[in-house]
# Entry
Amino acid sequence: MAAPHFLTLDRIGKDYGAFTAIREVSFSVAPGEFLGLLGPSGCGKTTTLQMIAGFEAPSRGRITMDGRDLTTVPAAKRGIGLVFQSYALFPHMTAAENVAFGLEMRRVSKAERIKRVAEALDLVHLAHLADRFPRQMSGGQQQRVALARALVIEPRLLLLDEPLSNLDAKLREEMQVELRELQRRIGVTTILVTHDQSEAMALCDRVAIMQGGRIVQIDAPWRAYDVPADDFVADFLGRSNRLPACAGGGQAEAGGHRFALPPDLADRQGDILLTIRPERLRIGNDGAAGLGGRVQSRLFLGGFWLYAVETALGSFAVMLQNTGSVPHDEGAPVTLDWDAHSLRRLERA
Amino acid sequence: MSRNGPLALAFHALFLTFILAPLLVVIGVSFTGEGYLALPLNGLSLRWWRAIGDNPRFLESFWFSLRLGVTAATLSALIAVPAALAIARWRFPGRGALVAILASPLMIPHVVLGVALLRFFSGFGLSGSFAGLVTAHVIVITPYMLRLVGAGLSGLDPRIERAAESLGASRLTVFRRVTLPLIAPGVAGGWILAFVTSFDELTVSLFLASPSANPLPVQLFNYIDQMTDPLVASVSAALILGTALVLLVLDRFYPIDRLLTGERRA
Ligand SMILES: Nc1ncnc2c1ncn2[C@@H]1O[C@H](COP(=O)(O)OP(=O)(O)OP(=O)(O)O)[C@@H](O)[C@H]1O
Ligand SMILES: [Mg+2]
# Structure
């Protein structure tokens, strides 16, 4: 069985005059998949989404949905649910009227419409604000109306441009869970644009990391996290520590500490740049084997302790689970230690 | 809103005085019983108000100007709304030229425009006709219309229209259900401004009017040319009071200050 692709972007590019916003973007989304589009501001996430929605014409390349070339299909006929970064609610309509609009366009009967609007508003916890106008709602509430408006038409593809960015932390977490559940339940293929890498990793089946108008890596969240394609991805998906070392004979040496290399790096010779995530480091008492250092600071995060350990190779961030044991004091001499398989070699970007 | 300083207060007072005083004088004079423009009044009389009824040509001209204003303002709206949309939404060749042409009547002295249109319309047999006056007035008032509609449009985020489109609305439906309702205050403000400008227009009309197509300002102008009895005062006073009444009623339903700035509901 060939992997069925619901949506395919084939070498898409977009120029605004002399400025190239999208250099080359290719990816495919499977039916029902939840894809995260992640990247720093200005990297082209919104532009990509707008091209899929049909509001910007690609300068190069082809977009196909369900095997059909979308080039000549107008936005109104694509059946795509779109949540804009700026919500773009109709200011002269109430929340309920906003949500009902797409159903009216589909000639859904009035009784059915009322029912589905109520359900959609319920879904985003806004049933009590059905008769409010957008200007009478907070940013987060408007964002949820926009979400309900896009969902109620039961789109074949859901495009979300930072749909949760304006919610407070608690509501955002709640909405994330609901969004994920909802997406699973109705099985709608979804592309979520976000700045927030933890949101993308929590919600998405795969994440695509964009930089400067191209996709640097597209992978399952844990793979992108554990095996970043380059420096940029490694930094973007959470913290990582750099460990410049000198390799030889299956081992490496850094700051006077000799350690084993993972099997895939065993044949390396000479200078090598390794990275390791904060949660993969262990802190040992002074004198234990490992890279020597000193606790610079420690932050208590409830479930975790976040240490900064100063070594000859610079400062290392270390994340230790709170197991109830007495923590290392600030200023105390310690050693850092790790398992060979936690080390990654960094491709120089 | 910030409080007015003494200088601003003085300015407002003078402004109101100079705007309102002539109007009050005209209204006062219209109640004279004499056969000439007299102030101060010695006794109130409705003589010249009754005289309006005896001079059907003023009434005829009034209705003519009303028809002219309504027709010209409406036609102008039909031109300005699509034009403003095209100018605001698209970059097309000749866009600059279109903006310049539509705004040019503001920069050409009305005397020049009147002479030019007279020459031009004579060729088509349009001068001295209702159609000719309508055309001339549309040319004169469209720049105002365009400005107010444009102001309404510039406050409208094109993404709102895109959202409607992505929900399945055709271009026409987007215009009808989203764009038009949102720019309606601007269009209404533009319409009123255009109507008032047309109703008030003298210079261009003077060249194009004829006994069968005689707007009220031209009628009044010609009357003063021949006679100076208080009939012009009573006709003017009737217009002032009529306008005030209409504006008062309108303001109850739609605040005029917002209408004229093309602002949407706050
Ligand atoms: N209409 C336009 N004309 C010219 N340049 C544009 C236009 N729209 C976007 N750009 C440029 O294209 C690039 C990508 O923009 P885009 O809106 O896709 O970024 P983004 O990844 O969504 O950023 P953010 O996270 O801040 O929303 C930016 O550098 C932007 O300045
Ligand atoms: Mg964006």
Remarks:
- Residues 72 and 267 of chain A are 53 Å apart (CA to CA).
- The interface with chain B takes residues 53-55, 74-82, 84, 86, 88-92, 101-102, 105-106, 135, 146, 149, 153 of chain A (CB under 8 Å).
- Residues 241-345 of chain A form a domain with the OB fold (Dihydrolipoamide Acetyltransferase, E2P) fold (CATH 2.40.50.140).
